[in-house]
Amino acid sequence: MLTIGIDIGGTKVAAGVVDEEGTILAQALRPTPADRPDQVAETVADVVRELSADRQIEAIGVGAAGFVDETRSVVRFAPNLAWREEPLQKKITELVGLPVVVENDANAMAWAESKFGAGRDQDHIVCITVGTGIGGGLIFDGALYRGRWGMGAELGHMQVVPEGKKCGCGNLGCWEQYASGNALVAHAREISTATPERARILLELAGGSIEGEEVTEAARQGDEACLEAFASLAEWLGQGMADLAAILDPGCFIVGGGVSRASDLFLDRARDSFQRRLTGRGHRPFAEVRLAELGASAGLVGAADLARQR
Amino acid sequence: MLTIGIDIGGTKVAAGVVDEEGTILAQALRPTPADRPDQVAETVADVVRELSADRQIEAIGVGAAGFVDETRSVVRFAPNLAWREEPLQKKITELVGLPVVVENDANAMAWAESKFGAGRDQDHIVCITVGTGIGGGLIFDGALYRGRWGMGAELGHMQVVPEGKKCGCGNLGCWEQYASGNALVAHAREISTATPERARILLELAGGSIEGEEVTEAARQGDEACLEAFASLAEWLGQGMADLAAILDPGCFIVGGGVSRASDLFLDRARDSFQRRLTGRGHRPFAEVRLAELGASAGLVGAADLARQR
Amino acid sequence: MLTIGIDIGGTKVAAGVVDEEGTILAQALRPTPADRPDQVAETVADVVRELSADRQIEAIGVGAAGFVDETRSVVRFAPNLAWREEPLQKKITELVGLPVVVENDANAMAWAESKFGAGRDQDHIVCITVGTGIGGGLIFDGALYRGRWGMGAELGHMQVVPEGKKCGCGNLGCWEQYASGNALVAHAREISTATPERARILLELAGGSIEGEEVTEAARQGDEACLEAFASLAEWLGQGMADLAAILDPGCFIVGGGVSRASDLFLDRARDSFQRRLTGRGHRPFAEVRLAELGASAGLVGAADLARQR
Amino acid sequence: MLTIGIDIGGTKVAAGVVDEEGTILAQALRPTPADRPDQVAETVADVVRELSADRQIEAIGVGAAGFVDETRSVVRFAPNLAWREEPLQKKITELVGLPVVVENDANAMAWAESKFGAGRDQDHIVCITVGTGIGGGLIFDGALYRGRWGMGAELGHMQVVPEGKKCGCGNLGCWEQYASGNALVAHAREISTATPERARILLELAGGSIEGEEVTEAARQGDEACLEAFASLAEWLGQGMADLAAILDPGCFIVGGGVSRASDLFLDRARDSFQRRLTGRGHRPFAEVRLAELGASAGLVGAADLARQR
């Protein structure tokens, strides 16, 4: 029994036919009509038609960044695509004539990792997606947890510093201002401005345009500023995991997202930071801290699999 | 079908026969043998014998402060009674010959409130017990959430101030250092020392010994210092609820515990603080903030009912 | 014996002939050639010529925002006018043939207040200029304190929140991010976005464009959001004064700058906050917290008087 | 012309005859009558009589921990010796018939370092005494700065963490809770409890009783926990220096006190932290960060020299 998973990103719509083992049998890609958010449903329909031409498809799972309502039908608010109360399920169903479920993309990713990836032996999982911001997905007793209105697991918006750095969400001191990819790059830039002699490798590599790739590469070559920025990210990641463990006592954390490709530069220290900061340490086991396994297609695979559960 | 619920506190063991509607049919009380923690099981057995003399009892539910393991059998660590890896279930079962389950007391209270109290119309509940510290209980999809090892919902130990006030758990800046009854009293004491002219009512009432009751009474009479301490508690309570809502998106919060008896002095402001601080406000409903309804017997009732689920 | 004081602002150059009692005998004004910072010296010379046409002038004192070097000659760095190592003294002296001293504008203001204004009976003064940012001036043993390189009294850049809000200076958590006019307006805007119902008066008054005047007026009319923003400013102002008193033990604080025109909305609470937070309170006198008296011409008068001391 | 300097500590009274070059010509020592604070003056008189038996002594300078009033006569409050409004000058003068001045001990130390020690080529000095707490002394334009009521330079009580760790002074988040010797030891203990495997060297050395010496020795042998505690002290020391430089723009910092004997373990990093955190860096020189030179006798020498200035 096959389903199609769709991952709607800011620049492209990735789609795949997925079987019950989480294997992708076929893929297709379209550019996201970002300036016409009302056209996204048609793009999805188009790619579904291509992929379902010669296959029996049971249902469609769509993953998108933003708040998705508890009926898995409507995107209430999406920062990237300027959606407000977008009835995505209804639009796509009308176009393709198949059952559709809509999911938050980080939830979809978490589900894929829990079923087919790093968490397949675990029942209580906190999945942390460290990209430009921080997203999350929660697996409790083997099921995806969505919250009362489908808006749970916005892990990046716990406050970790009272009156701290301004966040895009309007609040101050959110976790993602200290432990995300954007925080990492901002930190490295700050150090390189303040004390350029500590950022020689970075400044040489980047030539004025410091982005995540340059920070990672410079850190690997021993740049002091970038190593410090990664160390700070790791400490804050551990702090957030300690907070989440106090609340949720998961069996494992799974760290994914774009920044996790540089896990050699921060994951050991994040684990150490978590263990030093966990309340009740000494009287309880430590949750494992694992790296995500499925890479960039996790969202697509997870959405496809969640479409089976209607 | 009747069960007995037991609430093991630092000073007394409260027990009650509870029916399926959560009604207490009979009660009994014993002093806790606090200096002989190994004797607690016998005290429990004793009270069970008394209560079960003329009734058919199906099972026993025991609530205790501390980390209870995921099999609901062993108290791994209890600060009040100096228990370490105490096999409470085994001991009591051997003494009374009935099935026994052990639960964390805040979990038991949360369960009672969710089934028979303030949350009976809700499926996703975060229960916050504001006493000397802060405890918690989580109800997800109508079931009690315990975490992988039974240690979830230690809500009081989220860090809210980096490098903040020292907590009894060994960490710095835990939530319960800012929003619990102990925090309230400490705060009022500090203000009264620093600026006695703002604490005239309190100082007159307390005559040197400032405890929670004096702080509450003085606040009701308009004492500036105590009103400020309650305002601070309310703001921090709201901040913590905003953090928990970002993670868990509950339908409601239930605030209980000893401090909640003074809810007129802080609950409205805590709700307001929560709403001002919630990430994504404007694009999502606000969880309700409700007062617990079952009072001091919630723990006993919850433990009794949880004993039905084996 | 007369001197001329000049206050170089971002939009206008204000000049005045000042006698030994601090009285302004004549004034003149020119627009600042802000897009031609190298022309400022000529504007100053022009206004000096006008004012000295029929008077005997002994020296010129120039006040400017920015870091002025310890010889009172060179503006090393001025954010508003894009000056770097600007030899202002030399340029003006060459043009007008009179002795010239250059001073930081907040230092000049502090000096005027200490000699002719709110601090004339005091020898140890910390002057706090609360405008868009926070500037300062220090009077120790009756003399202006400049520091080793003339860069002392940058009071707005003490860190008060570790990893706090980003400051224009590149650091995080500077005092002026919490207690300046800009902080006030930002805070009021945030509350009005988060909970518009608490900012009804402000939103009606401001009609979309919230600036300092609207926040002040709305606070006076009882707007909840604006009162909260002022309360926060007052608390932080008091905290900073407590820190400065721990270090400097002044006899008084003088609060000036544009925001001080709304002193009825924050000064009492700032004083109270200072007294609650002062280390060693109970064993030491409290420094007075006074309002500046000389208004907008303080900078000009102070610069003129400092020109007498060469 | 000779004077006698006295350093009243918690356990011993150290005295010395000092010449105008700051050389100690003779010394004497007595135990402090700590349980009879009213007897301290007699102990001082006794040691003065011994040292002045065969010399012409002009005056006596007494250094003591605590708040000393602006007339240099009365100790208003001393935490160690339970003094309140102790008229030390009057008492000692009556007993020995010589002029007496009383000084805060950290001020005396700072004066000695500025005149005979690490700061003899400097006019603007901030002296930081890192011992169990943090004391300070300020030299401005070559003179000791005392503040309006003699209580300046309580540097350890700047707040660096809002609502941070409780300080003995009653406030929260004081600098000395993060950068003093006590903070160092507390930090090392915390890490060794949380993660004993990172503190193996320390735990072996200390055998249960962890104090400053063990932390220092273990750090020198590479103990991870102790190195982390020193790194944290260094970072916070640098932050405090950056705050002080924003306010005071000194030409140099002098770091003394008991912890400075381990300067190899933190001073380079403290300097680096200071430079990274200084506001306006890039547009101003960096103050030097120097080690104190005079060791434990600095207080005695400074008090003796200050007695010359009456």
Overview of the structural elements:
Chains A, B, C, D: GO terms for molecular function: ATP binding; glucokinase activity. Chains A, B, C, D: One of its GO terms (biological process) is glycolytic process. Chains A, B, C, D: InterPro entries: ATPase_NBD, ROK, ROK_cs, ROK_glcA. Chains A, B, C, D: Its EC number is 2.7.1.2. 4 copies of one chain form a homotetramer. Chain A has helices at residues 40-52, 88-96, 105-116, 176-179, 181-194, 200-206, 212-220, 224-248, 267-277, 298-306, and strands at 2-8, 12-18, 24-31, 57-64, 67-68, 75-78, 83-86, 100-104, 125-130, 134-140, 143-145, 252-256, 288-291. Chain A folds into 2 domains: 2-112 and 297-306, ATPase, nucleotide binding domain (Nucleotidyltransferase, domain 5, 2-Layer Sandwich); 122-292, ATPase, nucleotide binding domain (Nucleotidyltransferase, domain 5, 2-Layer Sandwich). Chain A has a 5-stranded mixed β-sheet. In chain A, strands 11-10-9-12-13 form a 5-stranded mixed β-sheet, sandwiched between helices. Helix content of chain A is 36%, strand content 23%. The longest helix of chain A is centred in the last third of the chain and has 25 residues, at 224-248. Chain A is globular. Chain A has 310 residues and is α/β, with parallel strands linked by helices. In chain A, a hairpin with a 5-residue loop joins strand 2 and strand 3. Chain A has 10 helices and 13 strands. Chains in contact: A-B, A-C, A-D, B-C, B-D, C-D. The interface between B and D is medium-sized, with 13 and 13 residues.
